[in-house]
Write a structure and sequence with these properties.
The complex is a heterodimer. By secondary structure, chain A is an alpha+beta fold. Chain A is built from five helices and 29 strands. Chain A has helices at residues 36-54, 365-380, 385-392, 398-423, 435-438; strands at 58-63, 69-74, 81-86, 90-95, 100-106, 112-117, 123-128, 132-137, 151-154, 161-164, 170-174, 178-182, 188-192, 199-204, 211-216, 220-225, 230-237, 241-246, 253-258, 262-267, 276-279, 285-290, 296-301, 306-310, 318-320, 328-333, 339-344, 348-353, 440-444. In chain A, the strands form seven sheets. In chain A, strands 14-15-16-17-29 form a five-stranded antiparallel sheet. In chain A, strands 1-28-27-26 form a four-stranded antiparallel sheet, with no helix packed on it. Chain A has a four-stranded antiparallel sheet with strand order 2-3-4-5, with no helix packed on it. In chain A, strand 23 (296-301) and strand 24 form a beta hairpin. The N and C termini of chain A lie far apart (88 Å). By secondary structure, chain B is mainly α. In chain B, 65% of the residues lie in helices and 1% in strands. In chain B, strands 1-4 form a two-stranded parallel ribbon. Chain B has a two-stranded antiparallel ribbon with strand order 2-3. Classes of the chains: A alpha+beta, B mainly alpha. The interface between A and B is large, with 76 and 77 residues. Chain B: Its main location: nucleus. Chain B: Residues 26-51, 380-454, 506-557, 735-773 are annotated as: Disordered.
C-alpha cells in the first residue's frame, strides 16, 4: 500500500541556526492583506449575530415545591447541590446534574424565611415563621432514622433571615435585632440593634468575615462589626432595601437591592454616595447575588425577570424571563460562575446559563481560540451602530416593555420639571444633584 | 448635622478634661493612682495625701498632723482640723513657706493646677457614647479594609484573571475510612453483609480471606519465592514473545524490510553456491535468472536521481541524515551498476572481442544490447570502445551480480565479511579463468573444465534466437495495432527500415508491455541514434539495399523533428509523417481562437476608456464658475444675439480653486471624495466613552487582531479573555492568605466572646486618642 502524505520543502521552514528568526510561512505585510478593518468588521458583525442566534440561556426548571420558593442556598463544597426553602415550610435539596429533588424536609410551620449552609457543607440552618432556628444534617437520614434537626433553638421573636459565618462556627440571625450565635449555645453571644424596625436580611462579609451588613424596614442599611459587637454605620435610602450582597473579591463593596427598582453598589467606607446606581428593573428588586468572580451580579425582581449587571455598569447586560416565571423572589449565582438559579412565586426553581450564548462542555483549542477572537471582535466594534443594535436587542414581555416606556416618560417629565424649575429660580437655589446622590437620604454615624 | 458635630466636639472636650485630671493624679506616686476610684471622696483623699506630702517636706517627720483625730467642732473644707482656734487655714498660708524654698517648685505647680481646676463635667449620655464607639469602630474597620485597596485595583485593571485564584489540592479519603463509617441498615444490606461475614470475606485492605491467608502461610517462603520467580519468568517470556510477534506483524519500516531482504539474498546466494557444486546446470539457470533481474533493474533507471523519490530526498538531504544516507546508497548502487560493466569490458576487451563475435551468436548479443540499450551508461560504455562492438557473454552477467551482493554485504561491519569478501574474490578470479578458457576454447583448443556448461550455452543460444523471433513478431503486431488503418501501406514499406531499430529491443517490449512506455523507449532509442552499432547496421543495410538509404536519412530527420515537438507520442505514430499534420491543425486552432477573441473585443480600449472616465470625474468635481450675465440687460437681446464678451467677463464669478485631488498623481486610480451614505450607516458618529480623542478610537479600530494580520503569538496575546474560569471548579471568595496578607490567627468568634458588651480598656484608650484628634 502506498501511503500518500504531504511533505514540504524544509528550505521553506527550517532555520539554519536557532538564533535565526522563525520562518513565517505567511507574509504579514499589511499591503498584501488590505481592507483589514472592513474584514474584521464583517467578522464582528457575524459574531454578534451568531451570539444572538445561539443565545438560549434557559436550561432546566426544577419543580416539586408546593408553594412559592422563598429562599435558596448553594452548597459550599458541591456544585451540584442546591437547597431551597418554600413558603409552606418545606425545604428541598436538589441535585442539579440529575435535575431532581434528592431530599424533602418539612422544616417549619409557615414560611421558611432563611436558609444557609455551614462553610464545611455538612449541615445547614433554616429559620422560619415559627420563631425557630433549626440545624439540619446535609446527608439524608439513614434507614430507619427519622428526619430530625440536629439542633433547634426556640426564639422569642420571628427570625427573618440567617447567614452563616464564613470560617467560624457562628451564625447571625435577624428579626427585631441582629443576633450572633455560637453554634454550641442556645443563646446569642451578642445582639446588636440600632433602631426599632424589623430587619429583613443579614449578610456576612466573605472576605473580612467579622463584618456584617443588614437592611431594615425603615429604609436603612446597617453595617456591624462582630468582633467589637457594635454597629458601624447606617445609610438611609429613599425606599426600603430588600437585601444586600457583598462582593466576594472586593472586601468593601456591597450591592443593595432596593424597592425603588434600582440596585445600589456601595463602598462601605464612603456610604454617602453609592459607587454605582444600577437601573433597569421596572419593579422592586427582591434579591441580588454576586458572581463568584466579582465582576457581575444578578438581580431578581418583582417584575418577573432577572437581570445581570456588570459591577461597573449602570445598565444590565442581560435580561432573562419566561412566560411562566412569576415574581422572582430569590436568585443565586452558582459557585463555578457558569449558571444562575432563581426561585419564583410559581413554585419552580429555574436554571439559567450565566452567559446566554456560551457553548457548554469541553472546547477544542481551536474552538476556544475562535471564541476568544470573536469576543474580542465584538468588544472592538461594540460602538458601531449596526453591531450595537444587534447586540442590544432583547425580546421582552409586553408588560415589562410597556413599563419601561412608561417609566422613561415619567423620568423625562421629572427631568424637564426640574430643568424648568432651575430655569425659573434664582441661580444656584436649585442645585444639580447627580443620580448617585439623589437616592441617599442620610448617613448616620 | 452641625448640631451633631457640635455635640461631638463638646464630648471630645469633656473627655480631654477627664484625661488631664487623670494624668495629674498619676504624677506624685503611682501606688496611689493605680487603685483609684472615681467620685467625690476620691478628691478628698487626694487632698489629704497632698497635705501629707507637704508636711513631710521640711525634714522632720510630722506624724501628728497625719494622725486622725476625732471629729472636732469645726470641720474645715479640706478636712483638716486646726487645733484650738476656729480660724480657717488659708491656702496662702500654706504657700508662704513654699516661696522661700526652691525645692517646692513641683508642688507649687501642682497646687496651681489644682487651683485652676474646674468642676468635673457630667458624663455623656448613652447615645452619644455609643455614637462615639461606633465612629471609632468604623474608623478602625475602614483602616483594616483599606489594605485591600491595592489588590482590588490590581484585579480591576488586570489583563487577565484566572479563577479559581488558589490551587486546589484534591484530598482522597482511603476506602477503609469510608467503609468504617458505613453500616448496613436495610434488611437487604444486612443480608448481604451476613453472607459476606459468613465467608469471612474481608472488606478492608488486605483483601484476603482467612483461607487464603492460611494457604499463603502453608507454603514455605523459599518455595513461594521460587514459584513466583518461575511464574514471573514464564510470564515475561510469553509477553516478550507476544510483543515481538505483534511488532513484526505491524512493522512497516523500510529498514527492517531491507534487512530482511538482505538476509534472504544472502541465503539465496548460499543456496546458489551449493547448487553450483551439486547441480551446475540448475545453477546456470539460476544465474540466468539473477542476470535477468539485474538487467531489469538497470533498464528501469531506478537508481537515477531523476525519480520523484530521489528528488524529494535531495531536498531533505540538507537536513536529514537518513535522507542523505539513502541518497548516497542510491548513488552507490547506481555507480555499482555502471561500473560493473566497465570492469568487465576492460577485462574482456583486452582478451579479444573478435573471438567473442565468432563464438557468441548474434541473437545473444542483441539481447544484451537491447537490455542495455536504453541505459545511457551503456551508451557511453559503448562509445568508449573503439570498435563499438558489443562484447558480451552469457556467462559474464553473474559476475557483477555476485559482486553486487558482496558489495551489499560490505556494508555490514565485521570480520566475517572480510572473510566472505576474500572468498568471493577467489571465486571470481576462478570463474574468470574458466571463462577465459571457455573463450579461448574454439581458438586455442584448450580443454574445457566444464563441458556441461558449454552445452547449456549452446542451448541458450538457440533459445534466445527463437525468443528473438517471437518477440519480434509480437512487437510488430503491437505496433501495427497502434497505427491507424490509413497508414497501412506506408507501414508496410517502413517496417523493413524500422527493423533494425526495433530489433534491438525485443525484450523491452516483453517487459514493458504498455504503450505508454513505448514512447519512452522511442525517446531513449532516438538518443542512441549516433550509436556506432546503428551506424554499422545502417551500413550493412546500405550495402544490402542502397536505394533505401535516402529514405532512411529522411526518416531520421523527421524523427528528430518530431521529438522536439512531441515527446510522448507513440513511436509508430511519430515515425509516420501524420502527426505533423495534426500539429499544424492544432496550431491553426490556436490562431483561430486568438483571432476570435480579438474580434470579440475589437472595440474595447480599456485604458482609453478609463482615462476618459477619470477626466469626466475630475471635471464633475471641479467647482463651477457662476455666470451672472443677463442677456438683454443694458443692450439688445434676442435670438441669435449673445451678451458681449466684456459683459460676460464682468459678471462671471470665478470659482475658487479647490484643494488638489487625491488621485492627482495616481494615473490609474480614481478616488471619489464624496461621502458614502451606505457606509455612513455603519460608522460611529459619536466618540464612545472611554476614548478622549477620535484618533485614539480610530487607531484601536484600525489595528487588526485577527490571525490573518498577526503572528500566532501576537494573535494569542491580543485575544486573551479578561476572565478565565474553569468549568466545574468552585470559586471561593478571595482570602487574605491568597494575596500575601496574614489574616488574624484568632477567630472572629473567640474575639467576640472575649469581648464584653462594652468596649475594653484598650478600646477606650484608642477612643480617647481619636477624640483628642
Amino acid at each position: 500500500m502506498k501511503v500518500k502524505m504531504l511533505s514540504r520543502n524544509p528550505d521553506n521552514y527550517v532555520r539554519e541556526t536557532k538564533l535565526d528568526l522563525q520562518r513565517v510561512p505567511r507574509n504579514y505585510d499589511p499591503t498584501l492583506h488590505p481592507f483589514e478593518v472592513s474584514r474584521e468588521y464583517v467578522r464582528a458583525l457575524n459574531a454578534t449575530k451568531l451570539e444572538r442566534v445561539f443565545a438560549k440561556p434557559f436550561l432546566a426548571s426544577l419543580d416539586g415545591h408546593r408553594d412559592g420558593v422563598n429562599c435558596l442556598a448553594k452548597h459550599p463544597k458541591s456544585l451540584a447541590t442546591v437547597l431551597s426553602g418554600a413558603c409552606d415550610g418545606e425545604v428541598r435539596i436538589w441535585n442539579l446534574t440529575k435535575r431532581k429533588c434528592i431530599r424533602t424536609i418539612q422544616a417549619h410551620e409557615g414560611f421558611v424565611r432563611g436558609i444557609c449552609t455551614r462553610f464545611c457543607g455538612t449541615s445547614f440552618f433554616t429559620v422560619g415563621d415559627d420563631k425557630t432556628v433549626k440545624q439540619w444534617k446535609m446527608d439524608a437520614p439513614g434507614y430507619g432514622e427519622e428526619e430530625e434537626p440536629l439542633h433547634t433553638i426556640l426564639g422569642k421573636t420571628v427570625y427573618t433571615g440567617i447567614d452563616h459565618h464564613w470560617k467560624d462556627p457562628a451564625f447571625a440571625t435577624c428579626g427585631q435585632q441582629v443576633d450572633i450565635w455560637d453554634e454550641q449555645r442556645t443563646n446569642p453571644i451578642c445582639s446588636m440593634t440600632w433602631g426599632f424596625d424589623s430587619i429583613n436580611s443579614v449578610k456576612f462579609n466573605p472576605i473580612e468575615t467579622f463584618l456584617l451588613g443588614s437592611c431594615a424596614s425603615d429604609r436603612n442599611i446597617v453595617l456591624y462589626d462582630m468582633r467589637q459587637a457594635t454597629p458601624l454605620k447606617k445609610v438611609i435610602l429613599d425606599m426600603r432595601t430588600n437585601t444586600i450582597c457583598w462582593n466576594p473579591m472586593e472586601a468593601f463593596i456591597f450591592t443593595a437591592a432596593n424597592e425603588d427598582y434600582n440596585l445600589y453598589t456601595f463602598d462601605m467606607r464612603a456610604l454617602d454616595t453609592p459607587v454605582m446606581v444600577h437601573m433597569d428593573h421596572v419593579s422592586a428588586v427582591l434579591d441580588v447575588d454576586y458572581c463568584p468572580t466579582g465582576k457581575e451580579f444578578v438581580s431578581a425582581s418583582f417584575d418577573k425577570s432577572i437581570r445581570i449587571f456588570p459591577v461597573d455598569r449602570s445598565r444590565s447586560r442581560e435580561v432573562y424571563h419566561t412566560k411562566r416565571m412569576q415574581h422572582v423572589i430569590c436568585v443565586r449565582w452558582t459557585a463555578d460562575s457558569k449558571y444562575i438559579m432563581c426561585g419564583s412565586d410559581e413554585m419552580n426553581i429555574r436554571l439559567w446559563k450565566a452567559n446566554a450564548s456560551e457553548k457548554l462542555g469541553v472546547l477544542a483549542s481551536r474552538e476556544r481560540a475562535a471564541q476568544d477572537y470573536n469576543q474580542k471582535l465584538k468588544e472592538k466594534f461594540q460602538h458601531h451602530p449596526n453591531i450595537k443594535r444587534i447586540a442590544r436587542h432583547r425580546h421582552l414581555p409586553k408588560s415589562i416593555y410597556s413599563q419601561i416606556q412608561e417609566q422613561r416618560i415619567m423620568r423625562e417629565a421629572r427631568r424637564r420639571k426640574e430643568l424648568n424649575r432651575r430655569k425659573h429660580s434664582k441661580p444656584g437655589s436649585v442645585p444639580v444633584v447627580s443620580e448617585r446622590k439623589k437616592h441617599v437620604v442620610a448617613v448616620v454615624k | 448635622m452641625q448640631a451633631a458635630e457640635m455635640n461631638a466636639v463638646r464630648a471630645a472636650e469633656s473627655l480631654l478634661a477627664l484625661s488631664q485630671q487623670e494624668e495629674l493624679v498619676d504624677l506624685p506616686n503611682h501606688s496611689l493612682s493605680a487603685s483609684e476610684d472615681e467620685g467625690d471622696s476620691d478628691g478628698e483623699r487626694k487632698h489629704q495625701k497632698l497635705l501629707e506630702s507637704i508636711g513631710s517636706l521640711d525634714g522632720k517627720k510630722r506624724w501628728k498632723l497625719a494622725e486622725r483625730s476625732e471629729a472636732c467642732l469645726k470641720v474645715s473644707e479640706f478636712n483638716v482640723c486646726s487645733e484650738g482656734s476656729g480660724e480657717k487655714l488659708l491656702l496662702s498660708d500654706l504657700l508662704e513657706p513654699a516661696k522661700t524654698s526652691s525645692s517646692l517648685a513641683a508642688v507649687k505647680k501642682q497646687l496651681n493646677r489644682v487651683k485652676s481646676k474646674k468642676a468635673v463635667e457630667l458624663p455623656l449620655n448613652k447615645e452619644e457614647v455609643e455614637r462615639i464607639h461606633r465612629e471609632v469602630a468604623f474608623n478602625k474597620t475602614s483602616q483594616t479594609l483599606s489594605k485591600w485597596d491595592p489588590i482590588v485595583l490590581k484585579n480591576r485593571q488586570a489583563e487577565q484573571l484566572v479563577f479559581p485564584l488558589e490551587k486546589e489540592q484534591p484530598n482522597f479519603v482511603p476506602i477503609e475510612h469510608v467503609l468504617s463509617s458505613w453500616k448496613a441498615r436495610t434488611p437487604l444490606e444486612q443480608e448481604v453483609f451476613n453472607l459476606l461475614y459468613k465467608n469471612k470475606q474481608p472488606v478492608t485492605d488486605p483483601l484476603l480471606t482467612p483461607l487464603e491467608k492460611a494457604s499463603l502461610k502453608a507454603m514455605s517462603l523459599e518455595e513461594a519465592k521460587m514459584r513466583r520467580a518461575e511464574l514471573q519468568r514464564a510470564r515475561a517470556l510469553q509477553s516478550y514473545y507476544e510483543a515481538r510477534a505483534r511488532r513484526e506483524k505491524k512493522i512497516k519500516s523500510k529498514k527492517y524490510h531491507k534487512i530482511v531482504k538482505k538476509g534472504k539474498a544472502k541465503k539465496a546466494l548460499k543456496e546458489f553456491e551449493q547448487l553450483q557444486k551439486v547441480n551446475p546446470a540448475a545453477a546456470l539457470e539460476e544465474l540466468e535468472k539473477i542476470e535477468k533481474a539485474r538487467m531489469m533493474e538497470r533498464m528501469s533507471l531506478k537508481h537515477q536521481n531523476s525519480g520523484k523519490w530521489a528528488k524529494s530526498k535531495a531536498i531533505m538531504a540538507k537536513y536529514d541524515l537518513e535522507a542523505r544516507q539513502a541518497m548516497q546508497e542510491q548513488l552507490a548502487k547506481n555507480k555499482e551498476l555502471t561500473q560493473k560493466l566497465q570492469v568487465v569490458s576492460e577485462s574482456e576487451g583486452e582478451n579479444g572481442a573478435e573471438e567473442e563475435e565468432l563464438l557468441v551468436p548474434d541473437a545473444v548479443n542483441e539481447v544484451q544490447m537491447c537490455a542495455d540499450g536504453p541505459n545511457p551508461w551503456m551508451l557511453r560504455n559503448c562509445n568508449s570502445d573503439a570498435k563499438g562492438e558489443v562484447q558480451k557473454d552469457p556467462e559474464q552477467p553473474p559476475e557483477p551480480v555476485v559482486q553486487e551482493v558482496s558489495e551489499s554485504e560490505d556494508e555490514r561491519p565485521g570480520a566475517e565479511e572480510e572473510i566472505l569478501l576474500h572468498e568471493f574474490e577467489e571465486r571470481r578470479s576462478l570463474r574468470k579463468r574458466s571463462e577465459l578458457s571457455q573463450n579461448a576454447e574454439p581458438v586455442g583448443s584448450q580443454e574445457t573444465k566444464d563441458s556441461s556448461c558449454q552445452e547449456v550455452l549452446s542451448e541458450l543460444k538457440l533459445l534466445t534466437q527463437k525468443l528473438n523471433q517471437k518477440n519480434h513478431q509480437s512487437r510488430k503486431q503491437k505496433v501495427s495495432s497502434v497505427r491507424t488503418v490509413l497508414q497501412v501501406q506506408k507501414e508496410e514499406c517502413a517496417l523493413e527500415e524500422e527493423e533494425p531499430v526495433l530489433l534491438q529491443r525485443p525484450e523491452r517490449v516483453q517487459t514493458l508491455e504498455d504503450l505508454e512506455d513505448l514512447g519512452h523507449e522511442e525517446y531513449s532509442q532516438n538518443k542512441e541514434l549516433p550509436r556506432p552499432v546503428m551506424e554499422e547496421e545502417k551500413a550493412e543495410k546500405t550495402s544490402n539495399n542502397q536505394t533505401d538509404a535516402p529514405k532512411e536519412k529522411k526518416k531520421k530527420e523527421q524523427m528528430i523533428d518530431l521529438q522536439n515537438l512531441l515527446t510522448t507520442k507513440s513511436p509508430s505514430v511519430k515515425l509516420l509523417a501524420v502527426p505533423t499534420a495534426v500539429e499544424e491543425l492544432e496550431d491553426e486552432e490556436e490562431k483561430h481562437q486568438k483571432q476570435i477573441i480579438k474580434e470579440a473585443f475589437a472595440g474595447d480600449d480599456v485604458i482609453r476608456d478609463f482615462l476618459k472616465e477619470k477626466k469626466e470625474a475630475v471635471k464633475a468635481n471641479k467647482p463651477k464658475d457662476v455666470d451672472l450675465t443677463l442677456p438683454g440687460w443694458g443692450e439688445w437681446g434676442g435670438i441669435g444675439l449673445k451678451p458681449s464678451a466684456k459683459k460676460r467677463r464682468r459678471f462671471l464669478i470665478k470659482a475658487p480653486e479647490g484643494p488638489p485631488r487625491k488621485d492627482k498623481n495616481l494615473p490609474n486610480v480614481i478616488i471619489s471624495e464624496k461621502r458614502n451614505i451606505h457606509a455612513a450607516a455603519h460608522q460611529v458618529r459619536v466618540l464612545p466613552y472611554p476614548f478622549t480623542h477620535h484618533q485614539q478610537f480610530e487607531r484601536t479600530v484600525q489595528t487588526p487582531i485577527g490571525s490573518t494580520w498577526n503572528t500566532q503569538r501576537a494573535f494569542q496575546k491580543l485575544t486573551t479573555p479578561k476572565v478565565v474560569t474553569k468549568p466545574g471548579h468552585i470559586i471561593k471568595p478571595i482570602k487574605a492568605e491568597d494575596v500575601g496578607y496574614c489574616s488574624s490567627s484568632r477567630s472572629d468568634l473567640s474575639v467576640t466572646q472575649s469581648n464584653p458588651k462594652r468596649p475594653s480598656g484598650h478600646h477606650k484608650k484608642q477612643l480617647k486618642k481619636i477624640s483628642r484628634d
